[in-house]
Amino acid sequence: MKTILEIQKLDRQIYALNREVDKCQASVNFKEYKAKLQEGRARFEQLEAQANDIIKNFNIANNRFDKYRGNADIVKKRNSDNINLDNISTLIQDTNDLVGDLSEENRRVEDLVRKSEEIVRKSAELSAKLTEAKKHSAVYKMQIEKKREEVAPKIAAIVQQIKELEPKVEDKEKYAKYKQMKEAGIFPVFVPLVDNFCGGCSVELPLNFVEKLKTAKMLPCEHCNRIIMYQTKA
Ligand SMILES: [Zn+2]
Q1: How far is the CA of 219 from the centre of ligand 1 (A)?
Q2: CA-based, 20 to 30 A from 183: which of 78, 100, 128, 214?
C-alpha cells in the first residue's frame, strides 16, 4: 500500500503540472476567445436568418405591387370606358385607396432597405471582430503549446519514477483498481478520513460506516467511490 500511495503522490504532481498548463493566462484567454468565436458564429446565423426574412418580405411586397398595378389598370379602364356622374365618386375613392396603399407599401419597403443596410453593417463589424479573435486565439494556442512543452520533460521524469515503483507494488489488484479509477477521472483515488467526512468529496459519512472503517482500515466512499483510508495520510 505504501508504494501505491507513493505513486499517487507522483501522479498528484503530474496533475498539478497539467493544471498549471490549463490554468495559465494563455489558456484562460484562449477559452475566452473560443467562447467569443462561438458566440460570433451564432450571431452570424441570426443575421443570416434576419436577412432571409427580409428577402421574403421583399418578395411579398413585390407581389403586392403587382396587385396594385392590376388595380390601377382596372381603375384606368373604368375611367375611360364608362365615366359618368354616378361612378365618379367611386373612382376617386378607388384612386385614393390605391395611392394610400402604395405609399404604405413604399414605407414598408424603405423600412426593409434600412434593415438590410443595418444587417450588412453589423455583419461587416462582426466579421472584423471574428478575424481579430481568430488571430488572438492562434497566439494563445502557441503560448499554451510552449507551456505544455515546458512541463513535458518534468512529467516524463515523474512517469519514469512511477514505472520504477510499479514492480514494487504488492497489492496488484488494488493498484489495478487505482489505475482504473484514475483513468475514469477520479483522482485522488485514496483519500483520508477527515473527522467524519470523506477526504475526497467531503460528504459526511454515517457513524456506522466510520465504525466499520476503523476495523476494515479501507472502504470505498458510498458517495464518490474513492477509497477512504482510516488514519493514513494520502
Ligand atoms: Zn467521497
Answers
A1: 10
A2: 214
Task: Give the C-alpha distances (Å, rounded to integers) separating 123 from 42, 49, 50, 113.
Answer: 12, 12, 11, 15
What distance in angstroms lies between residue 204's CA and the mean position of ligand 1's atoms? 8
Class in CATH terms, 2-168: mainly alpha
Instruction: Spell out which residues have Cβ within 5 A of ligand 1, the ion.
Output: 198, 200-201, 221, 223-224
C-alpha 192 – ligand 1 centre gap (Å): 10
How do the domains of the chain map onto residue ranges?
A: 2-168, 188-229
Chain segment 101-117, per-residue pLDDT in tens: 889 889 989 999 999 99
Distance 202 CA to ligand 1 centre (A): 6
Distance 182 CA to ligand 1 centre (A): 15
At 148-159, the pLDDT tens digits run 999 999 999 999
- Mean pLDDT for 108-129 is 92
Confidence of residue 91 (pLDDT cuts 50, 70, 90): confident
